[in-house]
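Students often ask what a holo structure prediction actually looks like on paper. The answer is less mysterious than it sounds. You provide the chain, you provide the ligand, and the output is a string of discrete structure tokens encoding the 3D arrangement of the protein together with flavin-adenine dinucleotide.
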Amino acid sequence: MNTKQQLVSIMADYRLGLFVFRNDLRVEDNLALYDAAQRSEILICCFCFNPTQNKYGHYGIPAMGKHRFTFLQQSLKQLRTELEMRGQKLIVLTGTFDWILTELISERQVDAVFLSQHQGYYERLQLSLLQQRFPFLPFHETPNNTLFSEPELPFELADLPETFSQFRKKVEPLSRDFSVQLVDALPPLPENISYPGFKAETLNELASADFEGGERAGLEHLASYFSGQSAGTYKQTRNALDDFSSSTKFSPWLAQGCLSVRQIMAALREYEAQFGENESSYWISFELLWREYFFWYALKHGKRLFAFSGLSGKSPKTSFYSERFQKWCSGNTPYPIVNACMKQLNATGYMSNRGRQLVASCFVHELSLDWRYGAAYFEQQLIDYDVSSNWGNWQYLAGVGADPRGHRQFNLEKQTERYDPDNEFIKRWAGDLSGQPIDSVDAADWPVR
Ligand SMILES: Cc1cc2nc3c(=O)[nH]c(=O)nc-3n(C[C@H](O)[C@H](O)[C@H](O)COP(=O)(O)OP(=O)(O)OC[C@H]3O[C@@H](n4cnc5c(N)ncnc54)[C@H](O)[C@@H]3O)c2cc1C
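The corresponding structure tokens follow.
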């Protein structure tokens, strides 16, 4: 045992701590892991993977597609290396969250469980099932994936403002030091731990070339982003449909927690100290507040995040048409810009924010489809899928969420003229399928599928 570890064990509150990684797949600036390390004499670090996610999900759409799965595997591989460098090990358990953890906690006689606070309704439900099974076991949940913790917010969660603008005006004046917590040493593993580690050979090499999962890759991307020119022009370029440097591309690492939002803010502050604050650097923090807003929105509204009527209490006048849905998913609609975006998503796992707004607007307005199917398809395909940002943005665009205007239809022709005037993006992704009908009908106008 080295001196740091000895120090840790002298001060420890618990003999055996269990740290459960979820959307916080990093070691640096992982406040929940830091807490576990400070308070446990020995520690087990685990991640629970439920393989049914690759098969089942909302509305029969598997919840995790190949891009995110590969990104996740890469992230776990890097996490394992980071833990090993600190004398620890990553144990990957396969099965249902509450059942496999019930088994592990009972078998190893765990004294306390540590996790990061999760905003997802189902994730919170799984945790509360586990807590009900062990009513006397301490569970420590640390705010770890937001800029502010709940007590720091200038309102009670129940009073979260109904719109993003009101939220932003309340939280922007809060001053906060975004210093990053380093984690150099971790308590040792218990002896004779027999659970298998993560097998690198299961790694599926389908990841998008632009995004490599993991903490190291995320930190490299962060450093490279702020060392170039892109942050200085972000406000002007962020709406572009393509081009890697037009927006930050932090989202996949943020979604899996390979990077913390505090690390990003610390890097942004450093950039501003060196090059001066400007409209673009401010706009990066502005966008990060959208993410922050949706986190608290999901936590406040729970399962209503997934409800057809959202927060509005009124069901939209849309439905499910299988042919339209299939055409939208595969990029075979009468709308070239939508097709190009969907083909890009299917091929890479990524789509720009502009693209997401256009395809979601088309889904709801031109195709009259039930927005929840679109959100579920995004959940499967997006490499940066994040429960609150995804379902919150879909609700917003479907007019049942945090949008005071309640109806956001984009004019697809005008948007194409503005964002793809030479049809370069449409050509690159083979979006133009002129003459494609919205529905297949026979001569008497009856649907044929
Ligand atoms: C229908 C729809 C679904 C979406 N689903 C997701 C999702 O599952 N996961 C996800 O991270 N983002 C989602 N977004 C938000 C946004 O499109 C992405 O965060 C952004 O495109 C990611 O690219 P970037 O990192 O380069 O973003 P940048 O423009 O560089 O923004 C910086 C960061 O700010 C945050 N951000 C920016 N815009 C938003 C926004 N509208 N809502 C929440 N956070 C935002 C993200 O963390 C992003 O990484 C969705 C948007 C729409 C319209």
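Residues 238, 247-251, 254-255, 287-288, 290-291, 294, 352-353, 356-357, 360, 378, 382, 384-386, 389-390, 393-394, 397 surround flavin-adenine dinucleotide (CB under 6 Å).
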